[in-house]
């Protein structure tokens, strides 16, 4: 067994299957399969259970995978210590952020980070996918979800509060809903999961209710939803950060404020792989974002 074999095992399990690992390693699938068979023969045990779609580690395969990650991390740290000696912090961070939160809240944080660490390359994806968040060589993902996946490290960034709102022009011409059930008859503008009913959870003290809605306008682009709300197309159900500035200016009003509303979840999480050895750039980025998120949450608590 050598370092190249351990690296191959790590790439296969990180990629999820032999074909994806072959693309990462710029090898043929047959070549990857051959080297994996040679490694298993040298160890004397099966390391990976292969199906047509997935590659899952056996118990001994998982142990070797963890050793491989640790060795890769030490090698990466050694290279960094040599290449960055006497230089500013350098590296690359690939980040996946939600379209709305990423553009409306995190954009300023990311720009400030780049100003402070110009040598670090930020590769930012604006997307809302939940499945296989970190499969496409993404270091960190930010998501609003009810519960974080058990196979990922989850760091809380703060609560997410949804509001029911409308433009002041819409409110002058239409009665705003004052009861949860009235939302069912209102033209609702919001995000939803394609192919699923929109179920809005509402909390008031110990009471919890759920309302099933059929929105008139659906999009995962929250900047577009904000424009639709300002245009008076209906009652928006969006996170408060989408319309906070508009509410302060008096362009948007909220309703059903006694209820705490939720569609995708009530908490924002930073997610990353538990066994992945982070570079100095990634560790620095994680600490920076956590600090900014805590500062934002503390400011919001003072304003409340």
Task: Describe the model.
This protein is of the alpha/beta class and 304 residues long. It has three domains: 3-83, Arc Repressor Mutant, subunit A (Orthogonal Bundle), CATH 1.10.10; 91-154 and 267-303, D-Maltodextrin-Binding Protein, domain 2 (3-Layer(aba) Sandwich), CATH 3.40.190.10; 162-262, D-Maltodextrin-Binding Protein, domain 2 (3-Layer(aba) Sandwich), CATH 3.40.190. The chain has helices at 3-15, 18-25, 29-43, 59-83, 99-116, 168-173, 222-230, 240-249, 280-303, and strands spanning 48-50, 55-57, 91-97, 120-126, 140-144, 153-159, 162-167, 188-190, 198-204, 207-213, 217-218, 235-239, 252-255, 260-262, 267-272. The protein has a five-stranded mixed beta sheet, with helices on one face. The chain has a five-stranded mixed beta sheet with strand order 11-8-12-7-13. A three-stranded antiparallel beta sheet has the order 10-9-14, with no helix packed on it. It is elongated and about 75 Å long.
């Amino acid at each position: 067994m050598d370092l190249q074999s351990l690296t191959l095992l790590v790439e296969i399990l990180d990629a999820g299957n032999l074909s994806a690992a072959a693309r990462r390693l710029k090898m043929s699938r047959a070549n990857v399969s051959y080297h994996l068979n040679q490694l298993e023969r040298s160890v004397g045990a099966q390391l990976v259970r292969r199906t047509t779609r997935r590659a899952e580690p056996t118990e001994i395969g998982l142990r070797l995978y963890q050793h491989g990650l640790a060795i890769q991390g030490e090698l990466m740290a050694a290279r960094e210590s040599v290449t960055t000696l006497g230089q500013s912090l350098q590296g690359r961070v690939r980040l996946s952020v939600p379209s709305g939160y990423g553009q409306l809240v995190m954009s300023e944080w990311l720009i400030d980070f780049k100003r402070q660490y110009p040598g670090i390359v930020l590769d930012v994806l604006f997307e809302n996918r939940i499945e296989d968040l970190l499969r496409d060589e993404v270091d960190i993902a930010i998501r609003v979800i009810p519960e974080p996946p058990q196979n990922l490290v989850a760091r809380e960034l703060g609560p997410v509060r949804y509001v029911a709102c409308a433009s002041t022009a819409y409110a002058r011409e239409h009665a705003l809903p004052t009861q949860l059930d009235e939302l069912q008859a209102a033209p609702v503008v919001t995000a939803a999961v394609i192919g699923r009913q929109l179920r809005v959870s509402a909390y008031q003290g110990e009471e919890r209710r759920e309302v099933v809605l059929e929105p008139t306008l659906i999009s995962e682009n929250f900047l577009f939803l904000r424009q639709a709300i300002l245009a008076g197309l209906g009652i928006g159900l969006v996170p408060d950060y989408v319309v906070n500035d508009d509410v302060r200016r008096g362009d948007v009003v909220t309703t059903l404020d006694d209820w705490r509303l939720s569609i995708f979840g009530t908490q924002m999480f930073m997610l990353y792989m538990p066994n992945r050895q982070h570079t100095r750039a990634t560790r620095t980025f994680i600490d920076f974002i956590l600090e900014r998120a805590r500062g934002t949450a503390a400011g919001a608590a003072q304003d409340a």
